[in-house]
Specification:
Keywords: Signal
Organism: Winogradskyella maritima
Number of strands: 10
CATH class: Mainly Beta
Distance between the termini: 48 Å
Radius of gyration: 18 Å
Number of domains: 1
CATH topology: Lipocalin
Protein name: DUF1579 domain-containing protein
Oligomer: single chain
Length: 163
């Protein structure tokens, strides 16, 4: 009887831990490649193929992105390597995105159910990338200035589709 009670307690504890996973909003993205094409507000092309995976016992989300690797947008290849991690000390999800040009973008991710809002500084501007869940195979993707629950300016609007 004690063994059965211990197993039930272990099962309940395990399921509670899973339900409280701060990276849970990434579950639908992980293990898949997502593709999008579009046009930036300045007329340049946008094309990316992004693969998400968990690492370190699902405490990290690793992101590999293919995209244009030259200013002329003629070369397509490995463009970004990103990491998302829950930071217990600040109770936030942080991200780091390293690009082929030697740049680093870092900021925070806000999860709203299955929607993800990446916030980061780009020069003097605070930019938001939004992954808005549509269904298991589609996310609306928007990049711009998002303040007070409203888009003040949009630089890119497209959709990512599961491949």
């Amino acid at each position: 009887m004690k063994t059965k009670a211990a197993l039930i307690l272990l099962f309940v504890t395990f399921n509670l831990a899973l339900s409280q996973n701060p990276l849970k909003a990434f579950d639908n993205l992980v293990g898949k490649t997502w593709s999008a094409e579009g046009t930036w507000g300045n007329g340049s092309k946008f094309k990316q193929d992004i693969t998400f995976s968990y690492s370190l016992d699902s405490t990290l989300v690793v992101v590999e992105a293919m995209g244009y690797t030259d200013e002329a947008q003629t070369k397509y290849g490995n463009r970004n390597h990103g990491i998302r991690q829950f930071d217990k000390s600040s109770n936030t999800i942080k991200f780091w995105e390293f690009d082929v040009f030697g740049g680093l973008t870092e900021g925070t991710v806000i999860c709203d159910d299955k929607n993800l809002f990446y916030r980061y500084s780009y020069g003097e501007t605070v930019v938001t990338d939004m992954w808005e869940y549509v269904d298991e195979s589609t996310y609306n993707f928007k990049v711009g200035i998002y303040e007070d629950d409203e888009w003040k300016q949009v630089f890119l609007k497209t959709q990512f589709h599961k491949q």
